[in-house]
Specification:
Helix content is 32%, strand content 26%. The strands form 6 sheets. It has a 6-stranded mixed sheet with strand order 6-9-10-3-11-12, sandwiched between helices. Strands 18-21-22-15-23-24 form a 6-stranded mixed sheet, with helices on both faces. The chain has 17 helices and 24 strands. α5 (143-156) packs parallel to α6. A hairpin with a 3-residue loop joins β13 (261-270) and β14 (274-282).
Length: 502
């Protein structure tokens, strides 16, 4: 067996606290190897060492059989290691070819050699069997194609070991399949090895060759996805390795009282996205809205939150017609929203945990012309306890928290405004399996307290776990409605692909 990577007895600590403890991690050449663990398990720290972002305290690294020392990203690149971080390193206001050569532009005399950069970008895309116009604006690309451009940059620099940190977090299922098709192509045609960090165990089982689990900075084990008898690894077993206990089979749904209609939508239309959609939401109800890419669910809930205008239709809240064309008006009407893609749309990275938690309700903390930090801190501490947000100091930056705890902070931000309706768009996106169940538990408690909740998600398992009733959309049209007793992945798939249930 030939190895692309061997990391031996890796140790790393921060401020005297050990984060990695004698970790051994080996990756077979020409494979997709998943690196798994809960947030805080040490995955990203281990890969940051390999990528030259941080240094290890002790240990050794071998790449393709040769011992190497990597103390900065330039040395990692020199050793043909590429690290595609969870935060995509793209500039939306530049052309695709400019993003490909960002930081190492080609010049002809005193000017940039755009034609050569465009040509080389085309050649890389052709080698990858990808159709992207090098002269397209980066901001015009779908999320999956931005991810593919990041992968293409690794091919351009002739990387042989690519680390991909949560590459599919904000992608739909068709986009995920597209990215993995590109990854397989790189392995088969370009002799590349890939380390894949993810919380999505379904993708790990479907697309990866091996998986390694870290827990609390220690190695738990490495196993093949497919055993010698051809049996695939079970997601529940992998999750148990990650958390140390069974979490996949935990029953999170609890029967609860459902009250009167609090929101009534009639014939809602958004040009090209939503076509005459009508539905009711009851107090204490968890209403799921699901479908496939381009189904209109995201635009629908953005419209409900005043972030996207409806061309026609009416909304009644508590029996009265309401109109709002801005999220501030939706907030005033008692509606809150946890948007999808937390890092781009929900958190403010330069602010603290407390500031992110209280920013929606700053008026509550006014003390004359200034803010009462005591009032603000009291509310933040209250929600830290209520939602079990794991943070040592509320003055820490929001980016210091794990994905699950960041998501809880965003939820707390809106709960401080005391809404009676919450829209949760992909509520466990980028969250590990243990934190998912915590968030599901919070949603159940909010519904039990009488809040009307709308959950949008492309993950059928998520919808099945927590929803009382589900609306399935297809090409902007409401294709069907399923009561909890009727819910199944098969029924959701039939409706979301335009089919009709028997």
């Amino acid at each position: 067996m030939e190895y692309a990577l061997k990391m031996n007895s890796i140790n790393k600590g921060f401020s005297g606290v050990p984060v990695l403890k004698n970790v051994d991690f080996s990756v077979e050449k020409g494979k997709i190897h998943a690196l798994l663990g809960e947030n805080g398990a040490g995955k990203t720290t281990l890969m940051n060492i390999l990528g030259g972002v941080i240094s290890m305290d002790s240990g050794s690294i071998e790449l393709f059989g040769d011992p190497v020392k990597i103390s900065n990203p330039a040395e990692a690149q020199k050793n043909r290691v590429a690290f595609i971080h969870q935060e995509l390193n793209v500039v939306n206001d530049l052309f695709v070819y400019e993003n490909m050569f960002l930081g190492h532009e080609l010049h002809k005399g005193a000017t940039m050699d755009a034609s050569t950069m465009i040509q080389k970008t085309k050649e890389v895309f052709e080698r990858m069997h990808v159709e992207i116009d090098p002269r397209a604006m980066m901001g015009d690309l779908q999320a999956s194609y931005k991810q593919i451009v990041e992968i293409a940059k690794s091919v351009l620099m002739d990387a042989k070991l690519i680390i991909m940190d949560e590459p599919t977090t904000s992608l739909t299922q068709p986009e995920v399949e597209n990215v993995f098709s590109i990854m397989r192509n790189l392995i088969e045609e370009h002799d590349v090895t890939i380390i894949f960090i993810s919380h999505k165990l379904g993708e790990v089982v479907e697309f990866c060759d091996y998986y390694t689990v870290l827990r609390n900075g220690e190695m738990v084990g490495t196993h093949p996805i497919k055993s010698e008898n051809g049996e695939l690894a079970k997601q529940a077993d992998i999750a148990r390795m990650m958390v140390g206990k069974s979490v996949m089979d935990v029953e999170v749904y609890k029967p609860h009282e459902i009250g009167e209609v609090i929101l009534k939508a009639s014939d809602l239309c958004i040009e090209k996205h939503v076509d005459h959609v009508s539905f009711d939401l009851h107090a204490g109800e968890i209403l799921g809205i699901t479908g496939l890419l381009g189904d209109g669910k995201d635009e629908l809930v953005r419209g409900l939150f005043g972030d996207m205008p409806f061309a026609s239709g009416t909304i009644e809240k508590n029996g009265k017609v309401v109109k709002y064309n801005h999220p501030a008006k939706a907030k005033k009407a008692g509606i809150g929203m946890l948007p999808s893609n937390r890092k781009e749309n929900a958190i403010i990275k330069d602010l603290t945990v407390m500031q992110n938690m209280t920013i929606v309700t700053l008026d509550q903390y006014k003390n004359g012309l200034s803010l009462s930090r005591a009032k603000e801190s009291k509310v933040a501490l209250e929600y830290k306890e209520k939602l079990n947000i794991k943070v040592d100091n509320l003055a820490n930056l929001i980016t210091s928290l794990s994905g699950g705890n960041q998501q809880k902070v965003v939820l707390a931000k809106w709960l401080t405004a005391d809404p009676d309706i919450m829209i949760l768009s992909n509520p466990t996106q980028g969250v590990d399996v243990g934190a998912k169940n915590e968030i599901y538990g919070i949603i159940m408690e909010l519904a039990k307290a009488g809040m009307g909740i709308i959950v949008t998600s492309g993950e059928a398992q998520e919808i099945l776990k927590i929803c009382d009733r589900v609306l399935v959309m297809y090409h902007g049209v409401l294709k069907g409605e399923l009561q909890r007793s009727e819910l199944s992945e098969e029924a959701i798939m039939i409706l979301s692909t335009g089919g009709i249930l028997d």
